[in-house]
Fold this protein.
Amino acid sequence: MLVLTRRIGEEIVIAGNIHVAVVAVKGQQVRLGITAPPSVPVARSELLAGAAESAPLPTIARRSRSP
C-alpha cells in the first residue's frame, strides 16, 4: 500500500486520467473528490464486500467538475 500525505485542495493522479482530490477534512473524516472516465467504476469498498461476485458494480452518479 502506498501512503501519501495531501492537504485540502491537493490531489493525486492515477494512470493519468483518474484524479483523487482532498476536498475537506473534519475530525477523522476526509472528503475525497474523484474524477474518472465513465468507463471506470468507482464505489466504496463496503458496497462491494457484500455483493456477489457475479453482480454488476453499482452505478455511481457522476458530477462534472466546473472549470
